[in-house]
Amino acid sequence: ACTPADSKTYDYIVVGSGAGGIVVADKLSEAGKSVLLLERGPPSTGKFNGTQKPSWLSGTNLTRYDVPGLFNQIWADGVPSCPDTGVQAGCVLGGGVAVNSALYWKPHPDDWDVNFPTGWKSTDMAKYTDSVFSRIPGTYIPSKDGKLYLQQAYDTVSKGLDSAGFKYVVANDAPTSKNMSYAHPAFYIANGERHGPLRSYLETAYARSNFALYTDSNVRRVVRTGGHVTGVEVQCNGGNGHSGTINVTPGTGRVILAAGTFGTARLLFRSGIGPTDILNVVKGSSTDGSTMISTDQWINLPVGSNVNDHVGTDIQISHPNVVNYDFYGAWSNPVSADKDAYLNKRSGALTVVAPNLGPIAWTMVNGTDGKVRHIQWQMRVEGRSNTAMTITQYLGMGTTSRGKIDIQANMNTRVVTAPYLRDAADKQAAIDGLEAMRGYLSKISGVSWITPTASQTSQAFINSVPATVASRNSNHWVGSATIGSDDGRTGGKAVVDLDTKVYGTDNLFVVDASIFPGITTGNPSAAIFIAAEKAADRILALAAPAQGRRFKA
Ligand SMILES: Cc1cc2nc3c(=O)[nH]c(=O)nc-3n(C[C@H](O)[C@H](O)[C@H](O)COP(=O)(O)OP(=O)(O)OC[C@H]3O[C@@H](n4cnc5c(N)ncnc54)[C@H](O)[C@@H]3O)c2cc1C
């Protein structure tokens, strides 16, 4: 049943329990602050009372979010998706880190040094990186018995990479080796179950008496007078949700938005923060128009205009040695020996992240504009035949193209400009990277090409895949509320300052993927955890807003 808000106040209200929100909420509560973490979605993993599971998991404290071999089934009934977001995203406890493939990479120094402003360079991030990796060590051997399972595709492709001159690394022991290198995929899995922030930071936060978590509680907008936020408006989403206005501690309390690249942008827009044309859409809407904060209090910032994502291009090969395991069948009819090995020993094929990833490889391309671009090659056993592998080229760190998101009158966010291959140098890097990889993969004896076909040039192939969300989406969206010292109110790109505080406010912050000025080399969640630890430190070091400022515009 829905619970109406009471008069309790919090030093910090954190909106969204994803990669950024969980970590920042834990660090703030560890410092003794009272913290409320608000999540719009329902519980996910078993540890936090999730319930979605196949019958063979009944009686266990596990759900489909916990068991790696069931990750294909996470979306089966649509429960975790965010229907108002325009792209795939997880609207459950844990956000992206509950629904993703749990791939986990210690960032390459360029991820900070090229993209981030002063104070957020790789040397500044080193201690937070150590902290994150001590709390979430990750592993490339998910099975508790220490063995790797279903390695046929991995073995086949890695032999080809060896003969092409690639170097094998243990990825998180060698984060700087991201050129002509490959690794076993690394995951935040422990004891054969999904680990990550849900099983580390959230558990420690949850054990503290100064921490509260409300699931099924959707924040509609922040309540503010001028630049000072007093609380948030919450709508109950059923389940155990809460509703009403929840306030921060008068004078000193703060609100942290961690609702993801789309969710945070939506909250800012609905709170009168963003480009005027987009705020006018909110003002014209039937849901928000009559109650929206008045135009004289709008804060004009470039929210939504610097978004980025890995540029995803799928190629497919096949090889007679590749074996396709029926992970979909594992939902209702698991191989009984595999089910027993999982239930009794947390070992075996069901500890393999569905749909079974092959080697992950990295290359770098020198751009025609003089800038280096990083590519991650992510292989999985899935495709047009039972012996096919799909290999996604993730063109990432160093790309210069950016896109834009906005909000529609029904309060759904959407991508208005996709961030893919808009600049010539990005496109050329995708072509050059592919051309080289085709050569490397041809070293695999017995390989056949599905796409591109042998007669198609790499240029023709890259050009044939539309630069749209439908064709290129990599689920790694960043950048709708970019961090920087170039204040967006006066022509800069930044929405938040170096303390992650929204420009023009004195107690509103953003701590999630939105603040990333550009995409990382690998899948981004580890970098988001690290950034969230760093942000917590900077926020805690800030003096409280001066009393009396709170009623000024
Ligand atoms: C299918 C998929 C696979 C992926 N695979 C990987 C991978 O293997 N490895 C990796 O590193 N990254 C992966 N990613 C990306 C990674 O999960 C995201 O980059 C990361 O989770 C983003 O963190 P965040 O904190 O910005 O937002 P999120 O993790 O999306 O969290 C935002 C949270 O805020 C909540 N929320 C939103 N709006 C509101 C509101 N108004 N009120 C209350 N709560 C709200 C959401 O429900 C959500 O829980 C994947 C993403 C997806 C979708």
From TrEMBL:
PROSITE patterns: PROKAR_LIPOPROTEIN. Keywords: FAD, Flavoprotein, Signal. The keyword Ribonucleoprotein does not apply. FAD binds at V92, V219. Residues 11-311 form the Glucose-methanol-choline oxidoreductase N-terminal domain. GO terms for molecular function: flavin adenine dinucleotide binding; oxidoreductase activity, acting on CH-OH group of donors. Residues 400-532 form the Glucose-methanol-choline oxidoreductase C-terminal domain. It comes from the Eukaryota. The keyword Translocase does not apply. Its cofactor is FAD. Belongs to the GMC oxidoreductase family. This is Cellobiose dehydrogenase.
